[in-house]
């Protein structure tokens, strides 16, 4: 089948799925997506524009935009359970910031969120009861999103939650068992995060080491709101898991390196670098590699989607990427304001630093970065979801 034929088939299947979902009862019939959008000053046109942007982000043809809009409209047909483990809640905050809600955060508010400790009124025994009821009532139907690293084994008790004193690992295992699809939201849940940084005193591990179910990782510290909402929309549209890389990250979001789409890439190739924060080269917008940018080793779409309603992202603001969507980045990407090439060269080339080569010619730095890039590319080769 040629590519057009494959798209037509995909379009037909997604339409059929949305038709079926539309027939299901809405879980939160009291909420109206368009009223919520209007009350925050978003027009129908803004919503369609947003749908077009999400369609592009999901690597779908532009003709799918009306389907993406429909997927958002039926998002209240699928129950969602969101669990918190050992973390800072920054991933939830990425979606829930209330001073200027985005269309993404309004859609998140509109989905059938059956359980989310940060936003629900219940606590203690009542909260635990709500979780058990949601799992029982929607067994096999709900989408599970988990935020935070999880202490494992003899350290499980470090994370003890709720009236019955269950451990986080226990809750995650129970909720995973009955979920339709499972997403690890943020680097803590995807790879362990800061809790798992050396010496990892609580033996924190990613969700994928707690359950034997397939877990889709949506890393980032925090991930952009579009990567969170996009994954839910993708599941609503197709009812199946997306194509994943070797770290179980959806390739539509994590298929390219930060370096590939960076607005400072031309400076890198020309050997024009910021030497110190605040220097003249920083004012000129030169490449941040020599002040520690980890963009060449980091797979994510920050430069495309940006943060805070698409206004900016770290490199635009003048700080290098810290590699927060990569496994163990707290240990492997530090020091955050020094080039990783120094590490690679110290071990591989008897102490010859990347700074020195950068002084000589940008192309040599490209070679230095390629050491890490090539190693990363090998382990990040794509694979199909099970
Ligand atoms: S991934 Fe980062 S932002 Fe999200 S909970 Fe962990 S530490 Fe916080
Ligand atoms: S090293 Fe960083 S700042 Fe420089 S081009 Fe690559 S991603 Fe951009």
TrEMBL record:
- Record field: transmembrane: 360-379
- Residues that, per the record, bind [4Fe-4S] cluster 1: 88, 91, 188, 221
The family database entries (Gene3D superfamilies) matched by this protein are listed as: Cytochrome-c3 hydrogenase, C-terminal domain, NADH:ubiquinone oxidoreductase-like, 20kDa subunit
Q: Name one Pfam family in it.
A: TAT_signal
| A Gene Ontology cellular-component term | ferredoxin hydrogenase complex
Give binding positions for [4Fe-4S] cluster 2. Answer: 259, 262, 287, 293
Biological process (GO) annotations held by this record are:
anaerobic respiration
Q: Name one GO molecular function term.
A: electron transfer activity
Residue span, Cytochrome-c3 hydrogenase C-terminal domain: 254-336
Give a yes or no for keyword Metal-binding in this entry: yes
Question: Keywords assigned by UniProt?
Answer: 3Fe-4S, 4Fe-4S, Iron, Iron-sulfur, Membrane, Metal-binding, Molybdenum, Oxidoreductase, Signal, Transmembrane, Transmembrane helix
The cofactor(s) it depends on are: [4Fe-4S] cluster; [3Fe-4S] cluster
Superkingdom of origin organism: Bacteria
Binding-site list for [3Fe-4S] cluster: 302, 321, 324
The listed locations are:
Cell envelope
Q: Which residues form the NADH:ubiquinone oxidoreductase-like 20kDa subunit domain?
A: 88-234
Asked whether the UniProt record includes Iron-sulfur among its keywords, one would answer yes
Quaternary context: Heterodimer of a large and a small subunit.
The entry sums up its family as follows: Belongs to the [NiFe]/[NiFeSe] hydrogenase small subunit family.
Designated name of the protein: Ni/Fe hydrogenase
Organism annotation:
Helicobacter jaachi
